[in-house]
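Need the bound structure for adenosine-5'-triphosphate, inputs here:
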Amino acid sequence: MSWKKGSLKQSTSITARLATFYTLTTLIILFVSSALLYWMLSTSIERGSENFVHSEITAISNILRGHVNDWSALNQEIVWKPQSQSNRYYARVTTADGLEVRATAGIDDILLSNVTWPLAPKKDGIISASKVIKIDKDQYYMLSTGWVVLDNTANKQAFHIEVALNVSHDQHLLWLYRQNLIFVTIFGTLCAFLVSMFLSKLGLRPVRKLTRALSKINANQLSDRLVIEHPPKELGDLILAFNDSLERLENSFNRLSAFSSDIAHELRTPINNLLGETEVMLSRPREVEEYQHLLSSNLEEYQHLSHIVDRLLFIARADNNNISLIKTPLVLRDEVRAVLDFLEAYAEEKQINLSIKGNATLEADATLLRNAISNLVTNAIKYIEPEGKVSVILEEDEEQVTIKVRDNGPGIKQEHLTHIFDRFYRVDSDRAKHTGGSGLGLAIVKSIIELHGGSITMNSNVGKGSIIIMTFPKLNAD
Ligand SMILES: Nc1ncnc2c1ncn2[C@@H]1O[C@H](COP(=O)(O)OP(=O)(O)OP(=O)(O)O)[C@@H](O)[C@H]1O
Ligand SMILES: [Mg+2]
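Answer from helper R.:
Posting the output first, comments after.
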């Protein structure tokens, strides 16, 4: 199946995601800091106005307290002074009955009667309340009221003081400030969006480079590795992992190619022999005995070919887990004994001593297990010098069963050990031709052990001998 661009359902690009994320973050930061700045400024301006109106109420109440009938001081504070000041304020003093004592000219024109003043408690003291109201378009006033109750007079008198300060200028300043903050927030967010788009694209440039480099790799160039100069850390790890899997892929690919050519190679010689001999035989009329001789020699080749094909088929089916095991509890000493008895004649031919040590029990497929042990012991007999020794050692503990096949033969060099379980791998192919081995025995043993959930390793000392260790877990789930 080939993957085309359209066949992959893609979600939003990383560039767009990053840009949105940065923009939203900037918007939130700008909004919160603007709101905070605005709140700080408006509170401080309002506090200034509040202080002014409160101090004005205090001044008027002091005049009322000190000189109840001193109208000149009251006139100065309420009638004349407000007109001479730029931050114009208006004041009014009324009695508890609502009779006006003094008022700044125009207070009634400016402060409409339907304006609600803040309510101050009707107690003595310079207790006052204040608030900002909008009277008209662009006309803002800070209103404040207070009460003065004079106890020292014969008839207890109470005065209501009202002060209104024009704060339109401050409100206009605050409005301007608000507009500027809104502009800065919008402009800043827009800039953040553009900059983050640019930066995200810049930051993701190595990913595009990686995509280009990846698209150049195909099955014919598996030996190529991904090379990107100074990649960022995140991609560095990805490149390493990718190169790692390329290497594994290349190894499997090479093994598969080698395996195919090995099969062709293995089958070519016997088939060529069959062809050659048959052609020669057919070149002229022959005696019946000659035909019989050819057919029986061909039969041997056919058997050899059939043997190779059967074993290859077994390995392929084992690879696909397509072999069902018939497991029974086995006393391994008996199984090994049967194998050694079978190989006794072959061993005697080479004067090789076979022995068993220890014992163990295991649930396994008897036929396959005998096959594996037989392959290993046959190898040992085949590859060691005459008068050598081969022993099968059986061990078990609570967790696992181990079968070891040890010999004192020529051993195998370390460089071969890593490939020893590969199909068709022979240490010395010339000697193998002589001994007739096809290099499939150990591959089959490995498949059998792995079918049982076990593992196999081979250790060897050149000149001293080899040992093959098979380990099976005891609590086999199957
Ligand atoms: N006990 C051993 N001592 C030394 N070399 C060994 C031993 N066992 C295996 N070998 C080497 O490992 C190679 C692979 O063994 P393997 O059993 O897979 O194939 P083979 O014996 O050549 O052929 P066959 O398919 O008939 O078993 C052999 O060719 C041999 O060189
Ligand atoms: Mg063998």
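Comments: The chain has twelve helices and twelve strands. Residues 379-380, 383, 407, 409-410, 412, 420, 425-428, 432, 437-442, 466 surround adenosine-5'-triphosphate (ligand 1) (CB under 6 Å).
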